[in-house]
Amino acid sequence: MMIVREKILTIGSPGSGKSYAGLTIARCFPESHFFVMDSDDAIPRMLATEFADLKNVTVFACSNWLDYVQALETVGKKAKEGDWLIVDLISEAWTAVQNYYVRTVFQKDPGEYFMKVRLELDEGAKKLSALSGWVDWVVIKRVYNDWLRQIKYKVPCHIYATASVRAARDADEREIKEMFAGGKMPEGEKHLGHEFHTILSAEHLHDGWTMSTIKDRGRKLMDRQPMPNFGLGYVIAVAGLKPKAKAKKKEEDKK
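The structure corresponding to this sequence follows.
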């Protein structure tokens, strides 16, 4: 029977437990392999400390767009049904693709490019746009969406992604503002919230980590639900995924 794939996005401020939650899933599912695209070196640090027992995690350091592309290519070849892809932080992938575009098209470091744009504005340009809507952004979004589409439809594993948060802006579409009615929205490409079945908000309160539901399908909604172990508290208890019984499998193999 085909396993229904999880597509979970967890948003939150630094220290809210987003990355930690992903590794609790790995601890609860030792027979599955976890491929992690890591953008801020948080995962290796945790694997060296409180999650040093995990042997089922492969980390890809993603500091630029080509790192994300190459990591996904490897995951596509190695991942199996029941495995997981963790993208931590997926909001950084949107920044990475923009930087890649600027370096490729304008042959400049992004910081240097935007500084030049700002200086030209001071010199009296009547109208100057850093990136043109009908030229640059169309290409940037196409490159990014092709990558995201592979994650959504071509890799066979479950998806757990994290994103940092930002406040709503006047320019945000009404539909997106209504989805994130609490005011906290994910950093990154503006339609990111439409790409996941489940969106949760992580918080670190004085008495521990909690999760609240922003969007979910046919599942119990959570409002600052205590969540010390996301693998047990959500993936198993709410989503209903079950770890493989290693011992049982070995017994069956002997028969």
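The longest strand covers residues 198-205.
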